[in-house]
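WARN retry 2 of 3 for item q-0093 after timeout on previous attempt; input resubmitted unchanged.
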Amino acid sequence: RARIAAMEAKETDASPSPAVRCRLVSRPRLEEQLNALDAAAASDAQRHEDVLRRIRLAMALIGGSVSLFGSCATGLALPTSDMDVMVTADRPAVTSSIGDEFVSFDDGHQNQLVWLETVAQALITAGITSSTEIIARARVPIVRFVEAESQVEVDLNGQSIDVASSWLLEQKRTLPFFRPVVLALKVFLAQRSFHHTYKGGIG
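OK item q-0093 returned
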């Protein structure tokens, strides 16, 4: 009888084990941290919009159309993330100019570099940045610079390869936890220097 009574008492004991108590304490703390990270990332959206507006004003001088893609466009950027921007000529055969020099642009690699050189010069002329770096050997050549007012690093190209944005936006819409978990994973990778695409990245 004593053994049966002890077993029944154990079954009806509502107090959780130490491991369960740890989980009960940790879960709200984790959610709090994820929500704080989510809020910090969301607060940067306006800063990115301001940078994009200034770039658009500069690119209007050479007939360039500007669009945002990547993590800033999907709302999955960290406060430390760079911006991915695409600048394309308004027409396939562009009449873009710096002074009296006109540039012809199509999908050819060499013409992309000529276009990016024109874009880089326009950014400097407009005071968006004091210097640029053209990375010509990348699969998609880019102009890299730091925007003067915000100190945000920008990667700008003339041929976007962004194909996942619609899928990411759909996951954000249907899975409320998707954004904070992705942001936490990006922080984890950044802390270990695996956040760049050529070293790993979440992509």
